Every structure is written in C-alpha cells, then in structure tokens.
C-alpha cells in the first residue's frame, strides 16, 4: 500500500483525489460530510434531479422511464401489459396486479447472468407490498364482467442503471407507468370470450355493450406513494444515496409517504447505526419535501403527454 | 420457530469482503420452497447480525418455521439471537423484536396473532437493542432507545407510527428481561457458556 497510515491529511495532500477515494472511501466521504457537502456537490438533504418520460414502450399498455441523477442513462424502465383472466372466487369484482422487478446485468458490474443480485427479490417484494397496501389502485376498477372476467395487470420494472436508491426510482417509475396506463377496448364475442378490439374497426361489437368499449380509459389513481431513501451515518443523514455511498455506509432507511402525507412504509432493515426518534423525524421531514418535488415532476410529465 | 447456528466456518461465501465475517441466513418456511418473501427475511436478519471478530469466516443461521401464528419476522429474530448467544458467537448487541399493529378503530395492539394480523390495516415490526436498564430513563438519547430495524406494512399516519414506537419500547424491555433471565439460568447449568 502507498503511504503510511499517519494522519489522513498527510496522505491526502500527496495522493490524487481519485486514488484517495478508492483506497479510503470512508474517510473521503467523511471529510466531505464535515463540510456538509457530498462528493457530487449536493447538500446532505438534497435528492438528485429526477425526470420522467411517459410512454417509452410503444407496444405496452402503459410505460414510463424514470431517471434519477444526471447521468445520461435512465435508471428505471417500467412497463405494463394487461391480460384478461377470470377473477378469484372470493373476489369476483376485483382484478389483480402482479409486480416484478428485474435487475439485468446491464445495470451494474456486480450482477452477472448466472448470479442474480440479492437485492432484486427484496425490492420486488417491497414494491408489491407498497403498491398494493397504499391503495393507489382500486382493484374493482379492473373488473370487466363480474365473476367472469377481470384484468390482470403485469407490471415489469427493469433496472437499467443501479446507482443507489433503487426502490425510490422503481416506485416512481411504477407510479408513472400506472398514470400513463390506458385500458384497451374489449368486446365480448360470440363464444362469450373477451377479445381485444383493434382501433380501426367500429362495427364489430356484439351483444353486451360494456362502458369499457367506448374508448380507452385511464385508471383512476388515488394516494400515489413516493419514496425517499436515506443513509444514516453517525450523526449525518444523507438523502438519496448513490451506489458508492450505499456500499460504504450500510444503514439505509426508506420512507414511503403518499400524497396525503400518510406513512405507507418505513423500512429500515437493520444495520450498524441505530435510528433514534429525532432521526426518524428528520427523515420524515425530508421525505415530505421530496414527495412534493416528485409530485410536481409526475404532474408535469403527465401534462406533457397529454399535450401530444 | 427453531433457529440453528453453524459456524464460524472457514471461507466467505460468494467472495465477499475477506476482512469481515460473513453471515448467511437460510429461511425454511413451514410448507413450500424458498421464495421471494423468504429472501426478504434473510436480508433483514443479515443486517441484524452485528459482529466482526473473525474475518473471512461464514456463520450460518438456519431458521425453520414450525408454526406460523403471526409476527413471523420478530419471532425469527428473537430465535436467531438466542441461537447466536447459545453458540457463543461474539456479538456487539443483542436484539429484541416485537410486533405492533394498528386496528381499524385506531387502537394499537401488541403482538398480534395470525388472524389479528390479517385483519388490521397496518402493522409494524420493530427491533430494539437488548439493554440492561429495565426502567427507561426519561427523555434524552441513550443507546437503549435506538431502533435497529423497522418494517411496516399498510398505511398509517406518521403520528400513529410514533405512538407504536412509544408503546413498543416498554414491551421490548420486558421481553429483553425475560430473555436475559433465560440465558442466565441456562448459563448457570452450563459453565462453559457463561456470558
């Protein structure tokens, strides 16, 4: 190893910044924290720039690309496909939502084709719990013919660039995809089966005229949840960590608030640092701010879509 | 819930950092195979385990679910901690886990059973540090007050979450007293394992 270990100050003046960052990542970040700033010049409580693009996948019924951070590559791609199925006997009026989160090897050098990332099933389960328990989607809206046919929604989220705070980006992409979703037009044909009607033909509708037939409609979303992940390190709270920060400082806490500022989920999966009440309060305050920012971003992108 | 601890064994699994010890958690559900939700439990338990004395070794914890009567994760954490102490692995702290849920009418229930868990609108699993102080000091920040882990399901207001915390702490300290007494009586019988 290069210099001796007598005082970080000696080493840092002799070594290049990049080398110091690789060899002593914790000290590198701590020296930034002392000045209340982070290596990418953000302040401690500030999240990265976020942008959304709706309708990224033309063949899907609803899709969105979420980009967090200023890298050129977008972070998450969410796409929704819908399929008609028979609903379960206990809930004949409700459709069903299946959420899956994938981390293909494109997203990060630690993921390889033979070894899926450990984080993928965890984030996937967290996402489905959060989306279903937040009540964003009313399952009854997904019903077509009570007891016989209902929509099954397949939501797939692909991580394209794993740069920290995966859950935040994934939730944002999912919410955006749902707000872009347009339920396709269907009709009941002679065999009693539901068939998807293509846009051109108008005179092919038989028998029961369900309201869905008229036009493609959008799902009504209430209480959209938004997430913020923070890292706790000694007495600092860092919002929206990058992958580098996440790997060094191991204690994450994710707070999901919905638009009415109710707590949908607070997930702190253990770690070396403890969370005191005051810390949790601070994180919640940071999340509230973030919810407002994200809502603005989402509304702007929806307006952009509608203009087209 | 039965927990078994094997280790430390030589070598880290999956080429993890050789300067630290590695904890591997295997969760065996009562029926069926390991699925996604099991992986979540594994990750939570992994982050609970706090120890770094033997580098480049692997300690395996196997959790077998015998009977699922609600509050699965807290039960597993308590069992895993007890097993780790029994194995004599060096630990920084012990963790104590409880479950708290919010019923429809706004009441807070501690330690729900499976039926109750399915009916309530939200529940919280909390893990605190096991502390010697059985009477909580007033105000101020002390080690015993920190939350190690918190996992919530369902929507609840922020204030409700904090009231769950307040109710949860005394319950956790009672539970931690109980666990300590169990260890002491066990250690009395077996001097090689005296803490």
Account of the 3D structure:
The complex is a heterodimer of chains A (308) and B (195). With 308 residues, chain A is α+β, with helices and mostly antiparallel strands. Chain A has one domain (43-183, 218-307): Ribosomal Protein S5, domain 2, CATH 3.30.230.70. Chain A contains seven helices and 14 strands. Chain A has helices at residues 8-14, 17-23, 25-34, 119-133, 166-180, 243-248, 277-307; strands at residues 50-54, 62-68, 76-85, 96-102, 143-145, 149-159, 182-183, 186-188, 194-196, 217-218, 225-233, 236-239, 252-258, 263-268. In chain A, the strands form four sheets. In chain A, strands 1, 2, 3, 4, 5 and 6 form a six-stranded mixed beta sheet that branches. Chain A has a four-stranded antiparallel beta sheet with strand order 12-11-13-14, sandwiched between helices. In chain A, a hairpin with a 7-residue loop joins strand 2 (62-68) and strand 3. The longest helix of chain A is centred in the last third of the chain and has 31 residues, at 277-307. The radius of gyration of chain A is 23 Å and the shape is elongated. The model of chain A is unreliable at 1-8 and 199-214 (pLDDT under 50). With 195 residues, chain B is α+β, with helices and mostly antiparallel strands. Chain B has a four-stranded antiparallel beta sheet with strand order 5-4-6-7, with helices on both faces. Chain B has a three-stranded mixed beta sheet with strand order 1-3-2. In chain B, strand 2, helix 1 and strand 3 (57-64) form a beta-alpha-beta unit. The longest helix of chain B has 32 residues, at 158-189. The interface between A and B is large, with 34 and 37 residues. Strand 14 of chain A pairs antiparallel with strand 7 (147-153) of chain B, so a sheet runs across the interface.
Per CATH, the class of chain A reads: Alpha Beta
* Net shape of chain A: elongated
- Give the biggest beta sheet of chain A: 6 strands, mixed
> In percent terms, what proportion of residues of chain B is strand?
25-35%
Helix coverage percent of chain B: 25-40%
Number of strand elements of chain B: 7
Count the beta strands of chain A. 14
**What's the helix-strand series of chain A?**
HHHEEEEHEEHEEEEEEHEEH
Could you tell me how far the N terminus lies from the C terminus of chain B, measured between alpha carbons in angstroms? Answer: 24 Å
Largest sheet of chain B: 4 strands, antiparallel
Second rung of CATH, namely the architecture of chain A: 2-Layer Sandwich
Largest interface: A-B, 34 and 37 residues
Adjacency order of strands in the biggest sheet of chain B: 5-4-6-7
> Percent of residues of chain A in helical segments?
25-40%
Shape of chain B: globular
């Amino acid at each position: 190893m290069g210099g001796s270990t007598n005082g970080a100050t000696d080493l840092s003046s002799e070594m290049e910044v990049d080398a110091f960052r690789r060899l002593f990542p914790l000290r590198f970040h701590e020296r930034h924290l002392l000045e209340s700033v982070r290596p990418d010049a953000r302040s401690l409580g500030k999240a990265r720039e976020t942008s959304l693009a709706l309708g990224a996948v033309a063949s899907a019924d609803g899709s969105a690309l979420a980009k967090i951070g200023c890298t050129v590559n977008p972070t998450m791609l969410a796409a929704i496909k819908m399929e008609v199925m028979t609903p379960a006997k206990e809930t004949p009026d409700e459709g069903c939502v299946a959420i899956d989160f994938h981390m293909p090897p494109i997203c990060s050098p630690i993921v390889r084709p033979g070894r899926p990332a450990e984080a993928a099933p965890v984030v996937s389960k967290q996402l489905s719990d959060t989306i279903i328990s937040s009540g964003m989607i009313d399952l009854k809206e997904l019903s077509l013919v009570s007891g016989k046919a209902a929509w099954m929604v397949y939501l797939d989220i692909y991580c394209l660039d794993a740069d920290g705070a995966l859950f935040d980006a994934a939730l944002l992409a999912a919410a955006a995809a749902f707000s872009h979703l347009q339920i396709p037009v269907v009709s009941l044909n002679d065999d009693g089966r539901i068939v998807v009607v293509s846009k051109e033909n108008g005179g092919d509708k038989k028998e029961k005229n369900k309201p869905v037939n008229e036009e493609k409609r959008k799902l009504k979303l209430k209480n959209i949840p938004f997430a913020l992940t923070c890292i706790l390190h000694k007495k600092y709270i860092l919002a929206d960590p990058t992958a580098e920060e996440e790997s060094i400082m191991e204690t994450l806490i994710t707070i999901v608030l919905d638009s009415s500022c109710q707590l949908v989920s607070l997930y702190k999966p253990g770690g070396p640092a403890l969370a005191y009440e005051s810390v949790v309060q601070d994180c919640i305050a940071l999340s509230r701010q973030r919810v407002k920012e994200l809502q603005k971003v989402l509304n702007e992108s929806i307006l952009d879509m509608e203009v087209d | 819930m039965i927990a078994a601890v094997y280790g430390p064994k030589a070598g880290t699994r999956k080429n993890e950092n050789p300067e630290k010890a590695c904890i591997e958690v295997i969760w065996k559900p009562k029926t069926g195979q390991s699925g996604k939700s099991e992986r979540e439990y594994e990750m939570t338990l992994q982050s609970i385990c706090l120890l770094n004395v033997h580098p480049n070794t692997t300690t395996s914890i196997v959790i077998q679910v015998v009977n699922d009567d609600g509050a699965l994760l807290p039960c597993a954490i308590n069992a895993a901690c007890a097993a780790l102490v029994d194995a004599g692995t060096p630990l920084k702290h012990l963790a104590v886990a409880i479950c708290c849920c919010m019923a429809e009418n706004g009441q807070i229930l501690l330690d729900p059973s499976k039926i109750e868990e399915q009916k309530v609108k939200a529940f919280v699993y909390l893990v605190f540090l096991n502390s010697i102080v059985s009477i909580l000091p007033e105000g101020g920040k002390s080690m015993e007050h920190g939350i190690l882990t918190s996992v919530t399901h369902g929507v609840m207001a922020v204030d409700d979450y904090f009231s769950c915390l307040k109710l949860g702490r005394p319950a956790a300290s009672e539970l931690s007293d109980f666990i300590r007494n169990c260890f002491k009586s066990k250690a009395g019988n077996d001097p090689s394992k005296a803490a």
